[in-house]
Amino acid sequence: MEWIESLQKAIDFMEEHLLEEISIGDIAKEAKASVFHFQRTFTILTDISVGEYLRRRRLTLAAQELSNTNNKIIDIAFKYGYETPEAFSKAFRRQHGITPREARSNKGILNSYNRLVIQVSLKGAEPMKYKIVERESFQVVGVKKEFSTLNDDNIKGIPKMWGEVHKDGTNELLFKINNGKIEGILGVCVTKKEYQGDQLIDYWIATEYVGETPDGLEILDIPSSKWAVFEVHGPMPDAMPRVWKQIYQEWFPSNAYEHAGTPELEVYSDEDPSSEDLYSEIWIPLKQR
Q: Where exactly are the transmembrane stretches of this chain (predicted)?
């Protein structure tokens, strides 16, 4: 449960520094994790990004201050990180559905997001189907894009990248040339360097392939590892996030493994993504705690 304690420590750090400029790098350091893995774990467990959590909490406190004090709206805007009253008003309306002036006059309903407390479910009511696999290093080929974790650029950009490979035919090509042990198309996250609280990642859409690299594609070496391979059943986009949440809420806390920090894989088939019988996989590299 050490990683849950570390995650809660990071949340406490966010709460203590809500009125300051803090980077996701500062927060991840409290959890003793890389920026990417902290961001991913946080989003899986809470269904929101770190940036969105900070925005919601700040605007919740701003609404309380508007209702309970006579402080100027412009001063409250600056206090909670907004450079102009206009930017503050726009963000405030997006969260609460009313303007700061209406909140001051107690006109309308406010949306309050309370301080987050991480709770892990160990009930295991729904069985998880997985196997442990050991593999030597292998190669995948595909296309990649570099994303920043700053401002959740990777969360926004990766779905767009999938849309592009479906549109330009790369998706069909990868299915066609797939000749490795893993059948299907892979989504692969590779963490790179951290710089001033930001982390760069390469996201690959690829397939396992043995042979000369086809024109227009790049090659990536996946290091040897022990893997937990989880079955994912059901239509996209809901099935994959559901199993990820189970992994972090139930499987990791009750097992003697932790994420090895090397690339993880999502495996997609060429079946109908809306099918109730769709089969996919999540491959997580493991190391002993």
A: none
DSSP assignment of 168-204, as one string? Answer: HSHHHHHHHH--SSS-SEEEEEEEEEEETTEEEEEEE
Do 149 and 100 fall into the same domain? no
pTM: 0.80
Q: Closest by alpha carbon to 10, among 23, 35, 29, 37?
A: 29
Question: Of the candidates 104, 121, 156, which is a domain's last residue?
Answer: 104
Domain with 93 in it: what CATH number?
A: 1.10.10.60
Q: Which of 199, 193, 183 minimizes the C-alpha distance to 265? A: 183
Specify the length of the chain in residues.
Answer: 289
The answer to whether position 150 is within a domain reads yes
**Per-residue pLDDT reduced to its tens digit, 60-75:** 999 999 988 999 999 9
Are 144 and 17 part of one and the same domain?
no
Structural domain count of the chain? 2
The model's pLDDT over 193-243, given as tens digits with 9 standing for 90+, comes to 766 566 788 999 999 999 999 999 999 999 999 999 999 999 998 999 999
Domain span holding position 53: 2-104
Would you state the structure tokens that stand for residue 61, as one six-digit string? 């406190």
